[in-house]
Each structure stands twice: as C-alpha cells, then as structure tokens.
Amino acid sequence: RLIIVGLKPEDAGDYTLSAVNPAGTLKATAPLKVPVKAAPKFEEPVQIKFEENLVNFEFKLATTKDAQIKWTRNGGDIVDSDKYKLTEDNGVYRLTVFNVEPSTDAGDYLLTVVSPGGTLKCTATLDIKAPEKVVPAPKFEEPVQICLEENAAKF
Prior knowledge:
Layout: E1 13-21, E2 24-32, E3 42-51, E4 54-61, E5 68-73, E6 76-77, E7 84-89, E8 92-97, H1 102-105, E9 107-115, E10 118-126, E11 147-149, E12 152-154
C-alpha cells in the first residue's frame, strides 16, 4: 500500500509495485493523474466607477470555484462596515466605498484572490482631486442706468 500525502502535480506518473519471491516476480503498474487546479484570472479587470459620493471597485473572475476575495488598504483588511461594502452579484465582485473623502480614501487598494490553483493580486489606485473652490460670477449691486444727454450717453 502506498499513500502520498500532500499530492502535487509533479507526483503524477506511473507507479509500479513489484513482488518478488523464489517462485518469481509479479509487477503491476498504475498511472496516477493529479488534477491541476486553474489559477484565478480576471474575466473583466478591476474598474473604478464613481457615483455621487461613493466609489465602486468592480471585477469579474473567469474562475470562481473556492475563490477567497480579500481587499486591503494601507496594510489593513477591508471588511463590511458603514464605510465599506463587499458584494458579489452573478460573478461580479464589488467593493463600495461610501462618503468618499480625498484626504482619507485616496490611495492604493490591494485585491488578493486566493484559490486552490494559486493567487492573483491586483492594485487599484484611487486618485481623488478635491473640488476646486467655486468663485461666484460677478454681479451688479445696482441696475445699470443709461442717461442720454444731447449727443452723449452716460452709464
């Protein structure tokens, strides 16, 4: 009996058992096929979509079986909260950031997808520009009056 613990793709091949005694030799060979699990890959890459005062990071995986999705920012894990929402709908994964502020939310967001076939990492950079200060248009404090005197007009 042969038991292989922690089976890996490189363990695939033909295995032969030989039994030898004074009466002779008996051999039996059996092939071992190790299924190779596909590494995660994007069907649609990460896209950043802005809506009012929130931002969505969206992506779609080509393979989702046993995939674990993790987002981090500045080394800290992102979890569901009042600030962040993690969702999946028909294979489209989404990280929503609410009440976006340039000073606190801009920066690199790291997506890590881990599956039995491997790991996929992607960094999405959120670059937010603060709105420019709005300068009001000029306006007259009093209505413009035109006075006509002989051959001249006075404003």
